[in-house]
Amino acid sequence: MSSVRETLRAELGAAVLSARGEGLDSVLVLDAGAVPGALARAQALGCNVLVDITCVDHLRWVPAGRGTPSHPDRMPRWELPKPPSRFKLVYRLMALDAGQGAVRERLALECWLEGDAGPASARSLWPNADWLEREVWDMFGVRFSDRPDIKRILMYEEFVGHPLRKDYPIGKRQPLLGVDDGAAPAALSDEELRPSPGGKRP
Amino acid sequence: MRLMDVVDSELLPGVITTRIDDAVGWARKYSIFTYPFVTACCGMEFMSTACSHYDLDRFGAAFPRFSPRQADVLMVVGTISHKMAPVLRRIYEQMASPKWVVAFGVCTCTGGFYDNYATVQGIDKIVPVDVYIPGCPPRPEAVLKGLMLLQEKIRKQGWKGQ
User: Fold this and answer.
1) Of A172, A173, A178, which has the smallest distance from its Cβ to B85's Cβ?
2) What residues make up the domain containing A63?
3) Does A115 reside within a domain?
4) Residues A31-54: tens digit of each pLDDT
């Protein structure tokens, strides 16, 4: 029986841009347009678990040997090819034989996005894709084409921006309370909130 | 003849005299009902302190109440994220006076090493804090020291409370 990886490679043809890794580290890099079909096919071939959906922000790519803007002396540890675009989306799949408790295959499908436009949602294939896509939206701002009203999952609704993007300032802090329920701490002054030692309390 | 002997023989036997401030402070100090607001790994250390080996009960503080209405001390144990912050604030406001707050562990004191977009950099930005217990996590001895500091504070506040 051939692996899901080899079957997908044969079926998708030119939509597989490259492949790397061996065994449980197998990765196929796909054309973004082919991702929804490839996911459905992978599930039909036995990938019954969606382990994770995540994203990589390649904003600060520098050629090998040039160091990085923040660490001019530090060389990259290995040579990375110039990324085709900024965001790379990663689907990690697993073919699990629950009866035997055995992992038959692991496979990662990657695709480079144009801007922040992601492929269609995988919710209909694996229900847990719902939360994973919300996390990718929350942290990286990747939009899934059929989820225009997607909600944040980790940060509160009023949060502005996407904190795992490389251009989100590392020291940036946003207003404290996510929900203004009429009991905002603005009612207490700084002096009241931070009583000096031995001083009077509010 | 000692003063207490005079009181015992001349006044009602078995009566001691004190000031109302001292009596109330003394009583409150030994009847702390805690609300454990446990969000992270410090909770394990809180449990070990509360259990028999270190025995919070000998300070009268081993009776956790899981309703803020019945609690005197809000024990904030663990990292507070921005999404959790309104909940903590509301719990504090639901508690009846007099009430006190203990920041348990460095995450509640300053945010600790979670110096990032998601974590409140010290719960004193949300609620007033009476005792800070640093440590990651604090040892039970540190917790007991913090509790005794709080008891001392409660005793001194006396009748007027806060």
Assistant:
1) A178
2) 4-170
3) yes
4) 999 999 999 999 999 999 999 999
The complex's ipTM works out to: 0.70
Looking at the domain assignment, is residue A163 inside a domain? Answer: yes
Is residue B114 within 8 A of residue B155, CB to CB? The reply is: no
Domain spans of chain B, in order of start:
33-154
Minimum CA–CA partner of B125 in chain A: A193
- Domain-located, residue A161: yes
Q: Which of B79, B81, B82, B162 to mutate against chain A (most A CBs within 10 Å)?
A: B82
- In this structure, are residues A130 and A122 in contact, taking their beta carbons and an 8 Å threshold? no
Total count of domains within chain A: 1
Q: Locate the DSSP E strands across A79-160.
A: 87-97, 102-112, 117-118, 143-144
> Which residue out of B79, B80, B83, B93 would a mutagenesis test of the A interface target, given it has the greatest number of A Cβ atoms within 10 Å?
B83
Asked if residue A14 belongs to a domain, the reply is: yes
Q: What would the CATH number be for the domain defined by B33-154?
A: 3.40.50.12280
Give contacts of B85 with chain A, Cβ < 8 Å: 176-178
Residue A69: pLDDT band with limits 50, 70, 90:
low
Asked if residues B65 and B35 have their Cβ atoms less than 8 Å apart, the reply is yes
